[in-house]
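Q: I have 386 residues here and want to know how they pack in 3D. Can you give me a structure?
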Amino acid sequence: MARKRIGTAIRSVEFIPVSVPRHGNFSLHRGTTPPDSPFTIVRITTEDGVTGYGEGNTTVRGWDAIGRNNLAELLVGADALNRTAIHAAIDAIEMMRVERVGHWNVLRAAIDMAVHDVIGKALGVPVHDLLGGKQRDEIVVIKNVGVGSVEDTARRAAELIAEGYRALKIRVGADVAMDIRRVEAVRKAAGPDIPIRVDANQAWAPREAVRVITAMAEYGLEAVEQPCRFADIDGGRFVVERSPVPIISDEGFWTADDAYVCCSHRVADVLHIYLGKCGGLLPSTRIVAIAEAAGAALTVGERVPLGISLAAHCHFAASIRTLNYPSALAYDLNEHDLLVRPLVCKDGVIPVPSGPGLGIEVDEDKLRFYTRDHGNGTSGTARNGK
């Protein structure tokens, strides 16, 4: 790593496992979301006392220990301002120890968020300024309707429109005939002007996907998310070439390398970036550059985030010039978001935080309250000189 600068060297790194109950859930064709949200919170403190926070939705418990055992000592002493060197060091550890285990990107993202929070606070600027500047003051969100009967789906859609949401997302894939009727019912409930997106979560074979999408397109779809298996490159291209509406890739990519494959093989018209999936803000900006060079559109989302990750996603979405689609950030299922002042979605938009760093204040009492035992009795901390 490059030589550290005085004051910006990382003094301590903490991987804090938390479990936050959910007061609601939603269904996919493969099942229903779990009753709680296990996260890993990363807290980084520099030699001059600046503290930054990051968050990863580590749905497989124990990943906080992986971060603590593999990454903490690596980060202590590093220059927090040198994002490139930090990611390069994580790359080296990843290659030697875990060989691209998927959830590693979630830990990387949590570290990356905390580093950006530190840098923004140290420089007195919001994170979106570190990413190129704010292109919008608020993020338009798309709200998930979930899986249910035709009647329940239409009723839920009407409720969300009444709450002020400007775009709706329908989970499909369990029953083709019913899914088509559900899309029709949502269009009738929402009216002609509300964008409707469907998400199949890899449910269909390519030829079936084209048939179903063509039938649903009659009701004015905005786009279809991940219709086929993510690994089926030829099948994905087959659908894109024949679909009457844009195709969004979600499960189809994690890294910039994956995004390049998606774009170069034209298996999607739109890339759906999750910071947790893609490894954080710095790696995700590289994916944005690839998409823009290839002429692909962009959308942003995350899986039921707490407040730290939600703030990071808002800064990221605000910085993207070519953000062409509403962002899937309108989750309100968690019992608490660990913030003193929550980020509120009102009338279908979330204002972009404006303070230094992520522009949020973590509620330390709630963080302690929701911290769970990872097996050693306390959350782990690595410190310089210890």
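Q: Anything worth noting?
A: The radius of gyration is 21 Å. The chain has a mean pLDDT of 90.
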